[in-house]
Amino acid sequence: MQVNCSCRGWGRGYAAEACAAALGWIDAYLPGEPVVLATQTANARSLRLAAKLGFTEVEVFRAWGAEQWLGQRVPPTLAG
Predict the structure, then answer these.
(1) Which terminus has fewer CB within 10 Å in the chain: N or C?
(2) 34 and 53 in contact (C-beta within 8 Å)?
(3) Is the pLDDT score of 45 beyond 80?
């Protein structure tokens, strides 16, 4: 399901805060598990957020009529 809406919360860092909290939970309760995400390459905000959260590019592919970006975050226990 895709939802398009205008949100007053955009640009306030709520997504970064929520994602960082979720990743922290994953690190605590699923140690060593990598996390992957996909977003359209046209979604510059999502790509910036992914980079900020430590995701790196695995591949770029075409699906659902658009170019997609697949990223992976290696857990701190495996990265360091």
Answers:
(1) N
(2) no
(3) yes
- Collect all residues with Cβ–Cβ distance below 8 Å to 59 and sequence separation of at least 6: 70
CA gap 46, 77 in Å, rounded: 25
Find the helix packing angle between 44-52 and 14-29, rounded to 10°. Answer: 40
The span from the CA of 75 to the CA of 34, in Å, is 6
Looking at residue 6, the DSSP 8-state letter turns out to be -
Cα separations (Å) of 13 from 9, 10, 55, 72? 8, 7, 17, 21
Cβ contact 9:35 at 8 Å: no
Q: What is the pLDDT of residues 47-70, one digit of tens each?
A: 999 999 999 999 999 999 999 999
Scan for tokens 């957020």, then name that residue.
Answer: 49
pTM value is 0.78
